Amino acid sequence: MRKIIHIDMDAFFASVEQRDNPELRGKPVAVGGSRARGVVAAASYEARKFGVHSALASKIAAQRCPQLIFVKPRFEVYSAVSRQIREIFFAYTDLVEPLSLDEAYLDVTENKIGMPSASIIAQEIRKRIKEETGLTASAGVSFNKFLAKIASDLNKPDGFTLVTPDKAEALVASLAIEKFHGIGKVTAAKMQRMGILTGADLRQRTEQELVQHFGKTGHYYYHISRAQDDREVQPHRIRKSIGSERTFETDIAEEEEMLAQLDFLAKEVAHDMERLQATAKTVTLKIKYFDFTQNTRSKTYLSDFSATDVIYTIARELLRTPHLPNYPVRLLGISVSSLLYPHDKLQGYQLTLDF
């Protein structure tokens, strides 16, 4: 039986800003955007109490929380802190699978300190993160990735949750369906219309029925409803694409709002590319309309790129080609593919020997 830890930093971007600027502590903070335009990239817990969250239009955020303080993102600082945290992870295991700058899975079934208790390791990691970075992290511990991810979210912020095998099925059965990792807003809404409101309801459906309604992902839903997940922690996963997308609370129709969202998404994609040391040749724009119809627009280049402004410029061009969306948009997404990693580029050079 595996011992899996999921570490998730608490309001990461906003917490870094509050750490570095004492005047922001205890106050509602939004990273990204401004009162006039833009999109919130992250929100402090003080801001979340007012309904401010990531991907929310800044204008709406300011309306919900008039005292909201907008701060310009410092992605280079967030990346540096993320590397610092990752070094702490590697002190315990090499089986680390980063999901983003602020979260990761760790497999500590066999670990570098010979500690049999995953709970003790998780608590020690949280303590070291606090001491070395001044930030708090929440941790979930269980015997598979799905349960560890669910557990880390149960007692945020600064929380710890252990899900043992004897408690797993009861926990999953009690969860509201929208709390399931891997079930997004649209899928959750569809399940709710089918009468699937909790994990217990999901477990009542046959695998065949779930596949019929949700395609191949139905197999995954069938197994997680039974607390089953055999995915391994993958420390060296080679990704074929990198992307980010946002579903909006209210459908958007103005070009300015769409461009603000694309700017935010381009920054997220570019920083994931930087973290993975990847470049790309293809950009794909995903547009989902108010009626759930969807289309994608892509463009491929001969030379590779990774800069935020390049990704944004291409996405902006795709948004306008052949024309701007004619109907209100409920989701926008940017992804890059045809990825190149450092070892791919090295293979393109012919080595010579000097005789």
UniProtKB/TrEMBL annotation:
Mg(2+) binds at residues 8, 102. The active site is at 103. It catalyses: DNA(n) + a 2'-deoxyribonucleoside 5'-triphosphate = DNA(n+1) + diphosphate. GO terms for cellular component: cytosol. It is an enzyme of class 2 (transferase). Pfam families: IMS (PF00817), IMS_C (PF11799). It comes from the Bacteria. One of its GO terms (molecular function) is magnesium ion binding. Its EC number is 2.7.7.7. The record marks 13 as: Substrate discrimination. It is found in: Cytoplasm. Monomer. Poorly processive, error-prone DNA polymerase involved in untargeted mutagenesis. Copies undamaged DNA at stalled replication forks, which arise in vivo from mismatched or misaligned primer ends. These misaligned primers can be extended by PolIV. Exhibits no 3'-5' exonuclease (proofreading) activity. May be involved in translesional synthesis, in conjunction with the beta clamp from PolIII. This is DNA polymerase IV. The lineage of its organism: Bacteria, Pseudomonadati, Bacteroidota, Cytophagia, Cytophagales.
